[in-house]
Amino acid sequence: MNFKMQDKQNQLIERISDKHLIVGVDIAQQFHVARAINYRGIIVGDPLTFENSEVGFKSLLSWIQSLQEMKNLNAAIVGMEPTGHYWKNISKWLDEQKIEVVTVNPHLVKRNKENRDNTQSKSDKKDALVIADMVKNGYYSFISPSSESFEMLRVLISNRDVIVKRLVSSANQIHRWVDIVFPELRQVFKDITCKGAIATLRLFPTPAEIASLEPLDVMNGWKSLMQRQPGPKKAQLLIQLAKSSIGTTQALGAYKFHLEQLLEEYDLTIYQLARVEQQIKEELYKIPYVQKLLMIKGISEISLAGILGEAGDLSGFSHGNSLLRHAGLHLAEASSGKWKGQIVVSKRGRSRLRRFLYLATMSLVMNNDEFKALHAHNVKVKKMKKMKSIMKLIGKLARIFVGIAKRNEEYCPSKLKEIIPLAA
Questions:
Q1: What is the distance between the alpha carbons of residues 3 and 325, in angstroms, rounded to a whole number?
Q2: Mean per-residue pLDDT for 262-281?
Q3: How confident is the model over 179-204, as pLDDT tens digits?
Q4: CA angle at 350 for the pair 349 and 353, rounded to the nearest 5°
Q5: Number of structural domains found in the chain
Q6: In this model, does residue 410 exceed pLDDT 90?
Q7: 3-state percent helix, strand, coil for the chain, nearest multiple of 5
Q8: Residue 49 φ then ψ, to 5°
Q9: Are residues 81 and 133 in the same domain?
Q10: Any residues with CB less than 8 A from the CB of 309 and at least 6 apart, and which?
Q11: Which residue of 38, 204, 231, 248 has the smallest Cβ count within 10 Å?
C-alpha cells in the first residue's frame, strides 16, 4: 500500500467494507479467545474460546465461516496482538487458509479498553472485542512476509543475544571470584578475561599455589595453553603478588570448584557465540544486496545482520523514514495551545532494530570519513548536542540502506561529501 502518512488512516479504514467479518483474537499460551463484529461495530455471534492446536485453529475457521454464512458476509479479517511468540503459529495457519491477518499495537489495546463500557475492567473476551474494534477503526498493521533468509537471521540474532547475555554474566562472576580469592591478579592482567588471565585461573587459581612456584614453572604452564604467552617479568610479578595476597584463605576447595564451573560456562558460551556468528555470516551473504551494504566502511556483518533480521527486506520499505518508524525512531511531540512540549523519539517499534541502527551509526562515526565529517559539522558548526547529531545520522543511514536495497546500487561516498559544507 502506497500512501502519504496523513492518508494512512483513511486508507486502512476504507479497506474494511460492509462485506467484512472483523474478528479480534486475544492471544494466550494455551487458549485463545475470539470475538466478531461487522463493519459498524455491532457484535456478531457468541465469543469463542479455542485451544492453541490444529484442532482449535480449525474450530476458529469453522466459527468464522458459519458467522459469514449467517450474516451473508464474503470477506474476513482477523486482528491480534503480537504477544511474545504465541501469535506466530496461528497467524501463519490462518494465512495458509487465505484469511487476512493483521496486528494491533498492545499499547493501543490497553488505551482503548474503556471505549465499549467506560470501565477499566479487563478480561480475555473484552480484549478480543477491543482488538476487533481497533481493526474496524483502522488501527492495525499488516504482517510483512519475510523470506527464509530474513527469518533465519531474526532467529539467529535472537539466539546470539541470549548467548551474549550469558557470556557477560559468566564473565562478571569470574570478576567477582577474582575479587574475593586473588584481587592482585588485576595488577598483572588488566583484563581478567584475556587469554593470559584465563590460563592462570585454569592452571593455578589460588595465590597459595602460585607462591610456591618458580617463574619458569609459571611460564611453562602458560606455554602449555597459549601460543604466545607473557614473559618472565609478568611471571615474577605474579609470584610476588601471590605471596602477599589479601584474598580469602577459607573454603578454597569450594571456591576452586566454583571457578571450574564458571570457566566451563565461559568456554561453552565462547564456543556457542563463535558457532552462531558463523551461521549468521553464512546466511547473511545469501541476500543479494548485502555485499553492496558492506561496502560502506564501518558497517559490520553482525550489525547488518541484526538490522536485516529485525527489519526484513529493506527493498520493501517505501522510504528510509518508513524504516525509522518501524524501529520506533520517528519523532513525537505533545503540544496544546500556547504550550509546546519537547520533541522526543517515540520508541514505538522494534527495540532490537533501534539498538543495531544505533550501534551501526556509532561505528560509522568512528570509522567512516563521511559520517565522521557530518557528525563534526553537526556538533561544531550547527551546535547540535552529540546525541541529537547521532540520531540525525541514524536517519541518514536508514535512507542510504533503503536506497541501496531498492535501487540495487553501490554506496557512493561522493554523494555524502557533496552535502558536507566546506566549513566542516
A1: 14
A2: 96
A3: 999 999 999 999 999 999 999 999 99
A4: 130
A5: 3
A6: no
A7: 60, 10, 30
A8: -105, 125
A9: yes
A10: 150, 153, 154, 155, 156, 157, 158
A11: 231
